[in-house]
Amino acid sequence: MVSASHGTGCVVASTTRSRSSNLIGEQPADLLAVDIGGSKLAAAVVGARGEVRCRRAVATPLTSDPEEVFGAVVGIVDHVLAEAPPGLSACGVGCGGPMTAGGEAVSPLNIPAWRRFPLRSRLAAHVGVPVVVDNDAKALALGEGWCGAAVGQENYLAMVVSTGVGGGLVVDGRLLGGAAGNAGHIGHLIVEPGGRKCRCGARGCLEAEVSGPSILAATGRPPADADLAVRRWAGRLVGRAVASVANLLDLRLAVVAGSVALGFGEPFFAAAQAELDRLCRLDFSRGSAIVPGGLGGDGPLVGAAALARSGPTREAPSYPGPGASPRQSAGAVDALG
Ligand SMILES: [Zn+2]
User: Fold this and answer.
1) Helices 212-219 and 259-279 sit at what angle, rounded to 10 degrees?
2) Domain-located, residue 209
3) 13 alpha carbon – ligand 1 mean position (Å)
4) What is the dihedral of CA 120, 126, 128, 134, to 10 degrees?
5) Tens digit of pLDDT for each residue in 104-122?
6) From the CA of 43, how far away is ligand 1's center (Å)?
7) Domain limits at 248?
8) Contact between residue 84 and residue 49 where contact means Cβ atoms under 8 Å apart
9) Do 72 and 175 lie in a common domain?
């Protein structure tokens, strides 16, 4: 049984992140979390308060054989299950897109061996508990609301700026899906008309401008070596995209994770916030805040667990209620007034 949607506190990875639990009733069981990426496969047990245990990761096989990739997934899952306490309640999987609704057939752009691979049903048959599969950026959005920088928020955007740029939207307490489950693809908002060619075929998409490979192509240096001007420029473009989303969807918090954004740090976030302030001028969008993600390297696994926890409805899994004290989002909440 998937656990209750509301009311748990959260501990992620270490006791320093502890918050008191306001869980009422029976303690939900642990969750199995799986993160499937183009370069790495990871699995772990995630506790009812978001703590990550028994983790295992391997490189994604470079192969054209779909069964070889699935075998690698099953290998790390079995390793984790062997160490896990009995009674896992559900399994959540964050996976690169595109995919059909519910993750029934996944075709991750960066895993060429999988085209319309029946991931959800195959994994469910193996692990024997309900399996929920969704886009990894949407999973992260649920994770940030459960244990990260959006705790207590019912309307927010969470996004990743890394090798690609993706996002997930929680509106009125629910993760938005869209007709085919692809809502939240903020990487393809146009931020520079006539700008760089995007792999989607358009020009000037956010992903074509600020993803790690795009920055390398534009500057000749990897993002880790980007100078201050590049960090600020990337922040400004992300702020521009977020402003459009905030105005469109009446939300006032954006949580930004991913190696490029978090690596660029304060100059990036200051520039993004300044652009947001400049462009969010409607009564309801003025004062919108953009903050770093609160889950660090655990984000993908905590997000996958949040998917399992939310179940098929994708209800945002945390709304701690009055008196809760979000760990990372205090500044954002203050900014929201
Ligand atoms: Zn694009």
Assistant:
1) 90
2) yes
3) 35
4) -20
5) 999 998 899 999 999 999 9
6) 30
7) 151-293
8) no
9) no
